[in-house]
Design a protein that fits this description.
Strand content: 5-15%
Bound molecules: iron/sulfur cluster
Radius of gyration: 18 Å
CATH superfamily: Uracil-DNA glycosylase-like domain
Oligomer: single chain
CATH architecture: 3-Layer(aba) Sandwich
Structural class: alpha/beta
Number of domains: 1
Order of helices and strands: HHEEHHEHEHHEEHH
Helix content: 40-55%
CATH class: Alpha Beta
Number of helices: 9
CATH topology: Uracil-DNA Glycosylase, subunit E
Strand order of the largest sheet: 1-3-2-4-6-5
Largest sheet: 6 strands, mixed
Distance between the termini: 29 Å
Length: 223
């Protein structure tokens, strides 16, 4: 596909690698712009690079990455079919939490990536990326529950590192992953419907009409 998305994402990546806008550039080995399919329908957003990511310049390549790949495989996906990015593109020293100023300074890069990718589904991994879209939500209460808004769906998930630290959460994580493809189908249908010309106001809703956006999340079935 030659719509320029890959080129634009490469431009953003080059800007990130050269970025010195916040102090994290002083301690990084490599910036980690993000990686994956430039036409991916699903974008995963983590928090920030860890030690392995900092070394390799790629997102989710440490233990959390291995876990994430297993979860993707469990629903028939590979990391090359999605796009993976982080809230901050450079590793916070000693894996500390990213500071508010660092996240605010780095925000425009992720915003630009989202604008270019225009994904149908954004999956947040952990509390910092969740806070972008669910600022008042508690992950233990809202994980796996999609919210449809604007042009896409947002799904908050636990961070893989949280599951590795707390294995009893694994069944919940798997259940949340099992919903992703069905949410993707719903997001596709909504975007398609929103692109269609409006029908007569008196027309009854068809079976293809997407559910009300304010409706509570529907019960999803496993594939
Ligand atoms: Fe630039 Fe973001 Fe890295 Fe800070 S974290 S130096 S804003 S790319």
């Amino acid at each position: 596909m030659t719509d320029g998305r890959v080129e634009k994402l490469n431009e953003i990546a080059a800007q990130v690698r050269a970025c010195t806008l916040c102090d994290l550039h002083k301690t990084r080995k490599q910036a980690v712009p993000g990686a994956g399919d430039g036409h991916a329908e699903i974008l995963f957003i983590g928090e920030g690079p860890g030690e392995q990511e900092d070394r390799q310049g790629l997102p989710f390549v440490g233990r959390s990455g291995v876990y994430l790949e297993k979860k993707l495989a469990s629903i028939g996906l590979t990391r090359d079919q999605v796009f993976i990015a982080n809230v901050v593109k450079c590793r916070p020293p000693d894996n500390r939490d990213p500071l508010p100023l660092e996240m605010a300074t780095c925000k425009s890069y992720l915003d630009h990536q989202i604008e270019v990718l225009d994904p149908l589904v954004i999956v947040t991994l952990g509390r910092f990326s969740m806070a972008r879209y669910f600022p008042t939500g508690k992950i233990t209460q809202i994980h796996g529950q999609p919210r449809f808004e604007d042009r896409r769906a947002y799904i908050p998930l636990f961070h893989p590192a949280a599951i590795l630290r707390n294995p009893p959460l694994e069944p919940q994580m798997q259940a949340d992953f099992n919903r992703i493809l069905e949410v993707l189908e719903q997001a596709r249908a909504r975007r398609l419907a929103s692109a269609m010309p409006p029908t007569s106001a008196s027309s009854p809703p068809s079976q293809d009409t997407p559910p009300d956006q304010d409706a509570p999340p529907i019960q999803l079935t496993l594939f």
